[in-house]
Amino acid sequence: MSATRVLVVDDEPNIVDLVSTVLRFHGFEVATAGTVAEALRQAEQRPPQLVVLDVLLPDGDGFAVCRQLRASGHQLGIVFLTARDAPRDKISGLTFGGDDYVTKPFSVDELVARVRAVLRRIGPATGSAPATGTLRYADLELDEDACQVRRAGHPLTLSPTEFKLLRYLMLNPGRVLSRTQILEAVWSYDFGGASNVVDTYIGYLRRKLDPYGPQLIVTQRGFGYALRSAE
Questions:
Q1: How far apart, in whole angstroms, are the C-alpha atoms of residue 205 and residue 100?
Q2: What is the C-alpha to C-alpha distance for residues 169 and 174, in angstroms, rounded to an integer?
Q3: H-helix or E-strand containing 29?
């Protein structure tokens, strides 16, 4: 089997060299880019399975790269690696479609662990239970093998994080899940209860699901969210 391809995007040569060397040592195939334009070009020409992405780049920012990759339908992992460590920056990175957010200075061992964790989550057997082929709830279908979702027969386009979140809800139908539970299951860590990233992604899912039928994701105020039919 071919090695997993990772694209490292950073304009600091020492960071690029360090991250590339460590990832290659751990068996990854690595490509590099130092600008927004080069990152998008490489992602189109030879899509990676994961991008390690800086936020501050000479011709733009990593948030814009993330948005464009998601808007283009690329199903890949995105790990931000940046010196911007304010909570609002972390929340923005995840809200724009990032799967994880690592701040500089960083531990190379932690970075490799985060990369592997994201790859596991976006893989065919992602989540808290073995793949079952197709999950169904009401008129909602989620095909784990093909990574496709349909509502009332209508195909929906979800980002990897949206897909993981919906899968977690469908594995727990009717159960009220707290924000902490969702953060741990979907993102593998939390922000001490202060993050609104779960609320943001619930909003994304509702905007994609609700046009085709009654609301399925309900809010239990003070507790969390549940997948629950009105019937």
A1: 19
A2: 9
A3: strand 29-33
